[in-house]
Amino acid sequence: MTQLLFVCTANRYRSPIAAACFKDESLKRKQGDKWSVLSAGTWTTDGMPAMPDAILRAKQIGLDLQGHRSRAITGEMLEDADLVLVMESGQKEALQIEFPFCREKILLLSEAAEGIPYNIPDPIENPSNVEVASEICELIRTGFDKICALARR
Q: What sign does the dihedral 40-44-49-52 (CA atoms) show?
């Protein structure tokens, strides 16, 4: 089974939405049994629920984050993952420095899905960016085959 790990700052908004969206898309494509999909955060506390706005935005696009609980990223998670997709270049750089053994498998979500590296802004820091959930899911849906190929290389 191929393991995919999505990472954001607190694991309470972007990465849980990304993980839920990838799981949903893999089920729609009848590939759900081929994937283990997790999410984690770079600066978080274990056990926190998804942000209320994340739960709402996810629900609006057909995803359920009610049962999500945050997890702090660990070296073991990174080692076990076939591909690690982060939301911001600072996260990518920090993880590559702290965990150099995983350097090659850490990419920005945008980089993996579109081949164009750019940050997906944190809606907690910029509340006017209410379309983050839709943007994440659009990247995953349109870049699904590219993401899968990168994870399986």
A: negative
The residue type at 46 = D
Q: Which residues contact 148 (CB under 8 A, 6 or more apart)?
A: 2, 31
Angle between helices 14-28 and 132-151 (to 10 degrees): 60
Residue 107 contacts residue 83 (beta carbons within 8 Å): yes
* CB-facing half-sphere around the CA of 117: CA atoms within 13 A: 11
Give the pLDDT confidence of 34-60 residue by residue, as tens digits: 999 999 999 999 999 999 999 999 999
71-123 pLDDT, tens digit each = 999 999 999 999 999 999 999 999 999 999 999 999 999 999 999 999 999 98
Q: Which residues are catalytic?
A: 8, 14, 122
3-state secondary structure at position 6: strand
Contact 41, 10 (CB under 8 A): yes
